[in-house]
C-alpha cells in the first residue's frame, strides 16, 4: 500500500522548467498586477538597454513607446425613414448631411423625394440620395463630386436608412516598443537572449550591473506571451545586416521558438536593438508610474537621452552630460561572501586540477598561502580533485573560510554616480535650490564590495509641507516599490534630521522641502526578492547609508540654518516695515515734519542697517531687563486685582490705582 | 488757572521735544530710542525728608528697531501724537476713548496697535514719565469714581456745586480735579473710607452733618482724582484726613498708598501723597476693645500672599528709614490671619 502511494507520488513528480515555474509565480518577477506588470516590462527593457550601452561604452539614446491598444466597434444607427423625407425625419437628414459635409446651404435647401431619389438643392448646389439596385444601400452624390454610401433596410414595409458608426474602445492591452542605439545582439544569440530564462550573460560573474539574474528581459517576453499569446518582435543589428525575429518561448521545455527570422539590408549602418511586445496591463500616472521610473532613471543616468511616449503624451529627458561613467571592472567573488550552494556549484564546474588551485584561481584575494590555510583549517587534502570533494567536506571548507583572515575584496569594480552628477540630476529633475551630495568610500559586506552615495536636495520647487521624498537606487536603477522593507528607508529614518534644521516625526522620514537620493552600488545587490525592489538590511550596509546621509546632512544643515536665519531677518524687516507708517504719522503730528520723508528715512535705516543688528535687536539686553521689571509689576497687579474682584469693587476701576 | 495753562504749555513742549528728538535720531540713521524711567520696586525709594515714595533715576531704553520693543514703542509715540492733538484743540479723552482711538489693525497684517485697554493705559503712563506731565495735563482722563458729601461748596467749570445738597448720591469725583475752585469750606476734617457701602451708610445717616466733616470713598484703592482732591483739601484748607479701612493687609495697604504714595505712581507722588493723614481703623486691638470676635473672616491663600508681599515691601521701607539692623523684625511669619471688615 505504502509502496503504491510512493509510486504514485513519484509518477506525479516531474521536472518543472524554470519558465513554467515563473509562469506560476509571476509575482516574484514583479508581474502580480496589470499596473505593475506594465511598469516592470518598461523597467526591464530600459535597464537592459542602459546596461548594453554601458558595456559597449556608447552614449545611450533610448526611445520608449507605450501605446494602448484599441478595437474598433461598428454599429448602425437609425438615420431616417425614406418616406418621411420631406416630413418628420427631414431634420435628421439635414443635420446628418451638414455634419458630414460641413456645408451651410443645406440648412435652407429645398428637398424633393420621388420615391427613388431624394434631392436637396440650393442655387447650383445639390445633394442626391438614390437607392441601390438591391435595396441594400443608398448612394449619396454631391455637386462637388463627393460620394459615399449608407445602409438601407426594409422594416415593416418601410425603407429605413442607417448610418454606420465606428467607435474606438480602449483595451487593457498595450504595445510596448523600445529602441536603443546600443551594440545590438548577434543573430545566433537572439533566440536565447530572449527565449530562454536564466540565459543571461551576467549570472556567474561579479560586476556592478543593473540586471543580474538574467530574468528581466525574458520575464517580459514570457509575460507578454502569457497574456496576449503574441510573439516578441525583435529587430537588431551590429551595424551590418538587420535581423528581424519573431520569437516565442516553449514554456515546458524552456526553449526559444523562432517563428520568423528575416534578414534585411541596413543602408544607414544602424546598430542597436528594437523590441516590441504586446501585453496586458494598466497605465497610470503619478506615484509608482512609468513616468516616475523613467524620470528617476534619468536622474541617476544623466548621460542617457530618454524619450518616453505614453498614452498621455511625450516626455523627452535630454542628455545632461556627454561623458560615460567609468566602466565597472569585473571581479572574482571574494570567499567571505560566497554561499554554500554557490561554492558547491563552483567546485563542480571548475576545470582546475586540485582544490587548492581552485581557490587561488576562482576567488579574489586568495593566494596559494591562504588557500592552504583554508583547506588546513577545514581538514581537506589540498591536492584533492575538486570534483572529488565530498558534500560534507564542502561544508567544512565553507565554515573554515570565515576563520581565515583575508584581505578585503578590491573596490575598483564599483561605478559610483559621483557627487557632481547627482547634484546636476537632482537640481534638474526636482527643481531643488541646494544639493548636498556625498559619495562614501567603498566598503564590504559578506565579501561583496559596495558603496553608498547620498544627495539631498532642498528648497526651490520642492513642496515644503510634505514628507521628504526618498529616491532609492540600486546600481543606478530606481526602486519604486516596497520602500518600507528597504534598508535605505530604515537607515534614513534612523538619522536625526532635526539636527539639520528639519522637522521629523519620531522614527519617520523628515518633513520639509527635501528630497533624498540614496544610491547603493555593489557587485551583488542583496535584494529581498526577485522583484528587485528592496535591499536587505545588513548591518554593514545600514551603517554606511546612515554615515552617508549624516555626511550630506551636515552640509545641508548649515545651509538650512542659514536659510532659516535669512527668513527670520526678512520677517523681522517686514514687521518693522508694517510699523513704519504708523510711527511716521505720529511723529509728523508731533513735529510738523513731512510724513513721507520720515517714512523714507526709516526705510533707509531698514535697508542699510546691518541685518544682524536689526534681527537681534540693538540693546536687546536693556529690552529684556525692561521686560523683566514689567513682569514683576504685572504680577503684583494681578494679585491685587484678584483681591479687588473678590471684594466686589467696581469693574470700572482704573487698573493702575487698583494695582499700586 | 494760570499755573494750569503753564503746565499744559509744558506738556505740549515736552511732546514736541519727544517728536523732534526721535526725528533727529532717524535722520542720523540711528535706531530711534525713548528713555523710559522704570516704574517698579527696584527704582522707587522712600524719601525720609518728604515722607513719600519717589521714583529713582533708572531708565529703560525702548528701541523702535527691536522685535521685543517695536509694538510698545509705536504705542508710546501714538499716544503722544493723540495727546498733542487733544492739547491743540483743547479737548479731553477718557482712557477708554483713547484706547478706542488707538486700536486698529496694521495694514496687511493681523497685528493691532493695541489689543487690550491695559496696553493703552500702560502707554499713557509711560508717556506721563517721558513727557514729564500727568495724564490730566495730557488731556486724558479716567472715569468718574468715588463720592463725596459734606459742607463744602466748589466751582467746577463755572457751575457752583454744594456738596451738602446733592441727595443720596453725593458728588461724583472726576478724574481731573485740578481746575476745581473751593468756594466755601466749613468742615473740620475728612474721613476717607475704603468701602463705598460704608459711605452710603454714613451718608444716609448724614454723619457729615453731625460731625461737620467730609466723607469720601472710591471703592477700595483710592483713585488719582480722589487722592488729589484729598491732598488739595488737606494742603489748601488744612483739613486733617482720617482713613477708615478694613483690618487686613489690603486695608493697611490702601492707607499706606494714601499716606506715602505707590510704586506705580511714584513719579507723581508729590501731587498725590498725604504724609499727614491718620489711620482711623480698623486695627487688631479693636477686636478686643469693642468685642468684635464674631466678625472675623479667616484669611485665604491670596490674603496670606498679600501679607507676605506687604512685609517684603515694608522691610525695604524700614531699611530705608531706619537702617538695616531692624530689617528682621518686619519679616515675622504669620500662621493665621483674619480680616476685620467695616
What would you say this structure looks like, in words?
The complex is a heterodimer of chains A (660) and B (342). With 660 residues, chain A is of the alpha+beta class. In chain A, 37% of the residues are buried. In chain A, strands 1, 2, 3, 4, 5, 6, 7, 8, 9, 10, 11, 12 and 13 form a 13-stranded mixed beta sheet that branches. In chain A, strands 14, 15, 16, 17, 18 and 19 form a six-stranded mixed beta sheet that branches. Chain A folds into four domains: 18-60 and 181-283, Histidine kinase-like ATPase, C-terminal domain (Heat Shock Protein 90, 2-Layer Sandwich); 73-168, no CATH class; 335-403, Orthogonal Bundle (Helicase, Ruva Protein, domain 3), CATH 1.10.8.50; 411-638, Ribosomal Protein S5, domain 2 (2-Layer Sandwich). The radius of gyration of chain A is 38 Å and the shape is flat. The N and C termini of chain A lie far apart (109 Å). Chain A has 18 helices and 19 strands. Chain B is built from eleven helices and 17 strands. The longest helix of chain B has 26 residues, at 2-27. With 342 residues, chain B is an alpha/beta fold. Chain B has three domains: 2-141, Arc Repressor Mutant, subunit A; 147-281, Dna Topoisomerase Vi A Subunit, Chain: A, domain 2 (3-Layer(aba) Sandwich), CATH 3.40.1360; 288-342, no CATH class. Mean pLDDT of chain B is 86; it is low at 321-333. Chain B is 41% helix and 19% strand.
Which labels suit this protein?
heterodimer; A: 660 residues; alpha+beta; Heat Shock Protein 90; Helicase, Ruva Protein, domain 3; 4 domains; 13-stranded mixed β-sheet; six-stranded mixed β-sheet; 18 helices; 38% helix; flat; disordered C terminus; B: 342 residues; alpha/beta; Arc Repressor Mutant, subunit A; Dna Topoisomerase Vi A Subunit, Chain: A, domain 2; 3 domains; three-stranded antiparallel β-sheet; 11 helices; globular
